[in-house]
Amino acid sequence: MNVNNDVVKRYNPKNIAKPVGQYSHVTKISRGAELYVFSGQIGIDQNNNIPTDFNQQVTNTMNNIVELLSSQKLTPSHVIKINIWATEEIDWDHFYAIWNRVFGSTPPSMTIAYIKGLGLPELKIELDVWAAG
């Protein structure tokens, strides 16, 4: 069991295979917590530019998530689940370098899907974030 805060607890049960990536199999939310559902976050920067480089979109997306959480007085430890939608193969070395910096040793639950397209043709990745606080 890994405890991130008083609201969110993470587990990787011993009776199932270890996660194949850097995520937690189970994320438990304490009773009475508020649930936050955010719109999908994309790789747009503060000047409303969407870079063509996939890894820069990943970096911008993660920065946007941290800022969005902060706007609600939440931290990455409050994130319970992230769904990742990508239109091209993820550079896992780059992705996990940022992921680990943001979420540390007890990352949230995660689902990944490769899809044909996102809401705008220039988007290459979008992260759907759920949090509790």
UniProtKB/TrEMBL annotation:
PANTHER family: BLR7761 PROTEIN (PTHR43857), YJGH FAMILY PROTEIN (PTHR43857:SF1)
Protein's UniProt name: RidA family protein
Any one Pfam family match given in the protein's UniProt record, by short name: Ribonuc_L-PSP
UniProt xrefs under InterPro entries: RutC-like_sf, YjgF/YER057c/UK114
Organism: Shimazuella alba
